[in-house]
Design goal:
Layout: H1 2-21, E1 30-37, E2 42-50, E3 55-67, E4 87-98, E5 105-116, E6 122-134, H2 140-154, H3 161-172, E7 174-175, E8 180-181, E9 186-192, H4 198-223, H5 230-249, H6 252-259, H7 264-267, H8 283-296
Antiparallel strand pairs: 1-2, 2-3, 3-4, 4-5, 5-6, 6-9, 7-8
């Protein structure tokens, strides 16, 4: 069964990668794809697009690892699990950092955690994941479209799925030391097992991935021809610093990778290739940031 489950996640990785490649027109852009193994058990496939016309960098990663002791970051606060005979964790993570500041940064991940029995078969499992959007120059219609597509998908599974998942996202992608959110939200879920089988759970994750890809590509295609000036690019680079701060200080996926002794290059592939911290901010920056915070620090749940 493990091989079959891994293939389903690899199929998701391939689908997202093919979809995102359509956004990158530069033939000389660099695409790196390599397989890696983890000494403690398992491995993955890291795919990175960089130095193109569209992407500063974009990472689409698959991993499947196993170990003896479940890392703390694998557990939501509501979970109390033990892995006496080991665990399996597999999933896909996607992060897109476009060059054009009119196009938001986006993130998606879908994952499966499984507890193994003494025969190394799956005895318990749960899924998690979600996606979110981080604009720099926000457009209200894009944000509403982003949330509407998630609501339409999740409405098929239950009346409260979108409401609960979008609230989870608002609460999770939060930067306490800045007193601000990372972006305009989306959906986030964990400890989910509302399915009759593990295969139905993975089918749900596949739909999440497809909705994310379609929604993000629609926004990107609307904004990719828009021109921008140096001050707008500068604003994007400084605001990307918030993304780095969240990922390194609070993100459970990053913490899980580090706690499970994952491959550092793959874990940190989610960080932007170009970012800036500036102590002194211009009046224009402060004005633009104030407008942005009004957008990202409100609930966009539709």
């Amino acid at each position: 069964m493990i091989n079959e489950l891994e293939q389903k996640f690899k199929d998701i990785q391939s689908f997202v990668k093919t979809s995102f490649e359509e956004l990158e027109p530069l033939k000389d852009s660099i695409t790196i794809q390599d397989s890696w193994k983890r000494p403690e058990g398992g491995g993955g496939i890291t795919s990175v697009m960089t130095e193109g016309d569209f992407f500063d960098n974009c990472a689409i990663n698959f991993s499947s690892i196993f170990g003896k002791e479940l890392p703390n970051a694998a557990l939501a606060k509501s979970l109390n699990k033990e892995a006496k005979h080991g665990y399996r964790a597999m999933g896909i993570s996607v992060i897109s950092h476009p060059k054009n500041p009119h196009i938001p940064t986006s993130h998606m991940n879908v994952r499966l955690f499984a507890i193994l029995d003494k025969n190394k078969e799956i005895s318990d499992w749960w899924i998690g994941g979600g996606y979110d959007l981080t604009p720099f120059i926000p457009y209200k219609e894009d944000i509403i479209e982003w949330h509407n597509s998630a609501k339409q998908l999740l409405g098929q599974y239950g009346p409260n799925f979108y409401k609960d998942f979008s609230e989870n996202c608002n609460n999770y992608f939060n930067i306490p030391h800045r007193n601000e959110r990372r972006g305009v939200g989306g959906i986030f879920f964990d400890d989910l097992k509302n399915f009759s089988s593990i295969h139905e759970g993975l089918s749900f994750l596949k739909e999440i991935s497809a909705t994310y890809s379609k929604s993000y590509i629609n926004i990107a295609n609307k904004r990719k021809e828009m021109s921008y000036d140096e001050s707008q690019k500068e604003f994007q680079l400084i605001r990307r610093g918030r993304y780095v701060e969240f990922n390194l200080l609070y993100d459970r996926g990053t913490l899980f990778g580090l706690q499970s002794k994952g491959r550092i290059e793959s874990i940190l592939a989610s960080l932007p290739a170009s970012v800036r911290w500036s102590y002194k901010k211009s009046k224009e920056y402060k004005f633009n940031e104030e407008k942005l915070l009004e957008v990202i620090n409100r609930d966009w749940n539709v």
